Amino acid sequence: MAAADAAVLDIDNQTSTIAKDVTSSPSNKRKRSDGEDQTGNAKTNSNNNKRRKKKKGGGGGKKQHHNKQKRNWIESCSESISRIPSNCVAPVTCVITRSEIEEEPLLPKQVGDDMTQSEDTKHTLDRDDDGADKIDCSSSNNEPTESNTSSIEHPANNIATLSKSFVDTLSKEPIQPWKIATTLQVNGEEKKLFIPVQRHASTNGPTKWQQTQKKQGRHTKKGQNYSHLPDGDNGDGKKNPYPKKAVPDKFWAQRKRLFSRYDEGIQIGGEDDPEMWYSVTPESIGLHIANRMALMMNLDRKSTSGTGAGDTTNTQCNDSKKETVIIDAFCGCGGNSIAFARLNNNKDVAGSNTRVKVIAVDNNLSRLKLAANNASIYGISKEDIVLVHADAVEVINAYEGGSRKNVQSEIPTNDRCCETYFGFAVGGVELLPDHVDALFLSPPWGGMDYDSNKGKSGFDPVNGITLESKMHNKEGDVMKTNGGELLTMAAKAVLSESKQEGLVVAFLPRNIDGISFTRVAVTSDIKGSIELEQNVVNGKVKTVTAYLGPCVHRYLT
Predict the structure, then answer these.
(1) What value does the mean pLDDT of the chain take?
(2) pLDDT tens digits for range 33-46
(3) What is the DSSP string of 82-105?
(4) Is 28 left (phi over 0), alpha (psi -120 to 50) or beta?
């Protein structure tokens, strides 16, 4: 494990020169992929006619247009930093970066030009039946057993509600209606909002992984067919023990990508709560995000070598604090919380005067138990993670500018105060610390079909993310919070412009609309620059991570 922990900060070396290269990034000449310009004007008829002509012109133009439509916004958007209209205001710049993470392939495939396998074998991942009669779990050590599921209660009976004190506060001081900004007042004059996009040099051209594969002659040849091994087998002979409608084979096959130590007793969820299988952050991406946050908050005090954006020598975020608190507001089964806590095992961070403390929040008590189990397997210290059973909206609203608000009368959100799971403390909002330095948001995106429903460049955080918080009453009323409101709450809770402190990180789908997200950031009163980072694993964009706050602006500039 020491070797794995020592690698926490090494996986980000390729992105540590972001700030140095941002200003030298060449202008991208590609057309905008959204349907209109940012000033609200529809694109001209001449441009539309050109597109029509390309379609009519034959297969070449049509194929090119079709391929472009397959790309996500973050891959195809053009650079507009030098084209800010004079009648617009641009308070925030959206900087697009790319991080490349290499993994050992975890999905062996059967390869053949004639594909002699049966139809059942070729289309294992597309079957509609649960496949229970076709699964042989007798040789699998990963089958759910009574010993590793008996302690996990059904999630429906363990959902936290908003506490009475928080509901009473809302009735006295209701949250103001939220509306995304489209114009801003500048010196008494109303101007249209424009979002300039700046592409970092790392986003240009093919990924390093793709270049390496091409040099080694491993790129896919035309006509060559591939098929995943059946029943989620990733090469170790262990088949998917769950019904495929609950846990599809492709998720089971990638279990060690989610947690490298899965075979040592990791628990992700099963038929009762299959959402965790497509919600947990893959381990390599989680470690990468933890590393980036550590650099931005200057947790590595001993780093003195100039490395561009990774040179944290002059950054003074949280410099006077010995304990850096990171809240994981949607911890689930603990993927990101464990990655944050593992920073303490890194020799550079451990040798500094800062220790990371993780507040793992989830409204589902069963998932907190999974997180505690998984953290114990990774050897996380019991002092490094605190489990809070509460609603994320209530926890975020408990802070302002990084400090805990004064609460005169507080009813715990968890009636099992002072309990421990695998040695980790579990309780309600009464366990929240007095200050917070960073807030990590990984809210639900809307299920497995978020990509197909929203399109390649159409995921709007306002309409695509909706949280439902149960009220503390017999009627069971629900308070809904959209993604825009969530980010505004988070910025108010953690960021402090006067102290130039605070960091908000959002884990987003790969088809996020960056213009819409940055408009939400402007509405949340964020200034300077935000970073949208493509998380590329083995040459493919998997997710997008957004970094916001004063630390980010200094890091990029």
Answers:
(1) 76
(2) 444 456 555 444 55
(3) T---TTEE--EEEEEEEEEE----
(4) beta
